[in-house]
Write a structure and sequence with these properties.
Elements: H1 5-24, E1 45-49, E2 56-60, E3 63-67, E4 76-87, E5 92-102, E6 109-118, E7 123-124, E8 130-134, E9 145-147, E10 152-161, E11 172-178
Antiparallel strand pairs: 1-4, 2-3, 4-10, 5-9, 5-11, 6-7, 6-8, 6-10
Length: 181
């Protein structure tokens, strides 16, 4: 078998060229890594039952669903202690906003006003009045409020139905308590 040096040299040259091209055109990557560990923190605010008769506060962690709030057609009823907010630890600053007011009877609802009172001296908390519904118009959020450590505040509802309301009409007002970071 005869070795053809010319062909062998060409083949070696092509292989070396291919290897150089592959090496030069290879992508270079830099890597960063991130590991994050998540935990559960205690709640800064919590819900507690109010003292109003007939009002039921179904409390499930962060969520509280209040039922039993009714009012007469063409009149107003106030529930002065429907549910309570308690500071479960340190002093907390927060505000309340309206998420939505829904139901087939919103046209018969006149007003829904929520107010928050400090139970230590039964005073209205400054900036706590929230007009949730006023003849079809929602409200802007309350101003910031600060509840002191171990403080207990009661949430009141004033409900006014129009004369056109009938027994069985319902409206749901969804609110959110916001604790800024």
């Amino acid at each position: 078998m005869k070795l053809n040096y010319k062909k062998s040299l060409k083949l070696i040259t092509l292989l070396v060229s291919a290897l150089l091209i592959a090496t030069v055109s290879a992508d270079i990557y830099n890597y960063l890594y991130l590991d994050a560990t998540m935990g559960v923190q205690g709640l800064a605010l919590g819900w507690d039952d109010g003292t109003d008769t007939g009002v039921i506060a179904d409390i499930n962690g962060l969520t509280c669903s209040v039922t039993g709030l009714t009012g007469p057609a063409g009149g107003t009823r106030e529930y002065s202690d429907a549910v309570r907010l308690t500071a479960t630890g340190a002093t907390v600053t927060f505000y309340v906003e309206v998420i939505d007011v829904t139901g087939t009877s919103t046209g018969d609802m006149d007003t829904i006003v929520v107010k928050i009172y400090d139970t230590s001296d039964d005073s209205l908390v400054t900036g706590s009045t929230l007009t949730v519904w006023d003849n079809g118009v929602g409200s802007t959020p309350t101003s910031s409020m600060t509840i002191l450590e171990d403080g207990i505040w009661r949430v009141s509802y004033e409900i006014s139905w129009k004369d056109t309301a009938i027994v069985g009409d319902t409206v749901t007002a969804a609110l959110r308590v916001v604790i800024p970071p």
